[in-house]
Each structure stands twice: as C-alpha cells, then as structure tokens.
Amino acid sequence: MKKPRIGSFLSVVLTLLAVYALVKWGIPAVSREVTTLPFPLPVPGTLMFFYMVLTIVALFLFVTFSEEGLSDFLKPVKKFLRGGYTKSLRAVVLTAIPALIGWQVYEITVPKVEVPSSLRIQHPSSNFPKSFEAKKNPFSSPTEAEVDAFIEQAKANEVVFIPQVRDDVERWVDEIGPDHVLEFFPVAPMMKLLAQLQSGDVDKETAKAALIEKYLFEGRALYAMNCRACHGDSVAGDGPMADGFKLRPINFADNGTIETIVEGYTFWRVTNGGPGLPNEATPWDSAMPEWKLSLTEEQRWRIILAEYNLAQKTPRMPESH
Length: 321
Ligand code: HEC
What we know:
Blueprint (H helix, E strand, L loop, with lengths): L7 H28 L9 H19 L3 H15 L5 H23 L34 H12 L7 H14 L11 H12 L4 H23 L1 H4 L31 H10 L24 H15 L10
Helix pairs in contact: 1-2, 5-8, 7-8, 8-11, 10-11
The protein binds heme C (HEC).
C-alpha cells in the first residue's frame, strides 16, 4: 500500500515553521534546563537569520534535486495560480500577499517618534559646570605650609592619618614596634625622608614626595572601601559587583576613560554619580553612586589621586595650560 504522504510543498512550509519554532522557543526553553537560571537565554537575531538561511538552502537543494521533485513541489502552486482550489481563495491570497508586504515596507520606512539609538556618550558635558574645569587636586601638589606641617609631624613621630586607616596603622605599630611610624611605607621617598630625619637635614622636595605617598595610601584605602566593589582591585572595572550592571563600571586603565578628561571633570563625575548625568549619557542608567552624599570633598580628592595612580594615568591638562 502506498504511504499517505503530504505534498512536497506542504512539507517545505511545515519544515520552515518547525525550524523557526525550534530556534525561537525551543532553544530558550532548553537553555533554562541547562543553565537552571530563572530566565531563558535570548537567541540573537543573527543566529535566527543563519538558521533560517541554512534551512532554506537545504530545502531548495532537496526540492530541486530531481525534475520530479521540482514539479511535485510546484504542482500545488500552479494549481492554486490557475484557480484550481477556488477562484475566491486565489483572489484573497493574491490580494493579501502584496498588501502584507506593502504594510511591512510602510512600517519600516515610516518615520517614528522614538529615542534615537545613538551610542551612549561616556563624557557628557552639557551640564558640566565651568567652574569645575580648572579645579586641581589639592593632594597632588601640597602647599608649602602642608609640607612644613608634615615635617613637624614626622620629626615628632606623630604623623596624622585619616580616621579610616588610623586603626590599621596603630595595630601595625603595636605589632612591629618600629622606630618610626613612617616605616609603614617601604617606598623610596619615605625611606629617603626617614634617613634625612636621622641626619637632621630634611629637604622639602623629599618631604613633599613622602607626603604624597601618604595621601596615596589613604586614597587607596578609601578606594578599597568605596569603589573597589564595582571598579575592581585592578581598577579595570571588574570588581565583584561589576557583572550585575548593564552599564559596566568604567575601566580606569583604559586609554579612553579618566586619562582623556581633566581632573575637575573626574571630580564632578565622582561627586554627582549616575544621578548627575544629563540625557545624552543615556540609555541605561548608571549605577555610579552620588558620592557627595557620603564622602567629603577631601576624601573624594584623595580617592581620585589614588585612582589615577593605580591606573597609571595622568589627567588631561585644562585648555588654558
Ligand atoms: C555601584 C557600582 C559603583 C561604585 C561603588 C562606584 N562606581 Fe564609578 N562607575 C560605575 C559605573 C556603572 C560607571 C559607568 C557609567 C558612568 O559613566 O556613569 C562608573 C563610572 C565612573 C567614572 C567615570 C569615568 C569616565 O571616564 O567617565 C568615575 C570617575 C568613577 N566611576 C569613579 C568612581 C569612584 C572614585 C568610586 C568610589 C568612590 C566609584 N566610582 C564607585 C559604578 C560604580
């Protein structure tokens, strides 16, 4: 007995629909099973395109493999075009197809009111107050009075640290029992200063370099407490929380970030965070906190000093320089 078979035209149509359904709903459903995540992994449009093109090519080869195959495929089409299935069906389909295509073309070309899909502007400046532009980091070039005060503190072995690191330094002093608290910093400028303190002949340049080392240490500590979770130990924007945000925390080591902006701008961005960004920095809300709410101005500047240092970058010079 001959197997009842559906025509080759219908099987082509059904295969196309089946492959489409598999990619559109099957893969996301399987992905949920495999990943055990509460949401399906999306199938990118390009992947769908590839699958469908490959399916069409395969079906084309299959249909045109032999003369009989092709005429088998075309039989219902020809019958339909000759009005073999009823004339009214032909009229309906032949009107519907051009109308559908026309409607699609209209949908694609008609201008729409929507947010332009432009790329996000990383360094928006429309609401950047001019007064910030010339701001300098007070900790990158301490004044003479600050250096003098530091020398006095160093001489008396009573160096003042910010409260956030004081406990740690004191604990270290208790454990190690050093001759001088500045031995905490095993870096060249500090060693030089300690040697000069011993000989009693301290020069200001050395003291200034040593003071900046102290500021850097404090800044790094504040960075670790406040910024590390997002921007990461390596300042590459890969902290433990970084993957949780659609708009990733910035990689400061990248050449296109804090190196291309003046310090005052960095200060403004840190101060106002995501909520302070103008519209051109959308889409996607920035998770960057508004640091003026929880850090003092001095703390913010210390962190910025450490941020540039950790990233091994220097800020851009303001235009007037
Ligand atoms: C909750 C996560 C989070 C924390 C914590 C965080 N940031 Fe961010 N930060 C971001 C995100 C996300 C961006 C990128 C989006 C943007 O431009 O606002 C960003 C951007 C920045 C930028 C802009 C860089 C550029 O070139 O445009 C600076 C500067 C910055 N952060 C500094 C800091 C400092 C300093 C701290 C700590 C005081 C900090 N961030 C803490 C999430 C965070």
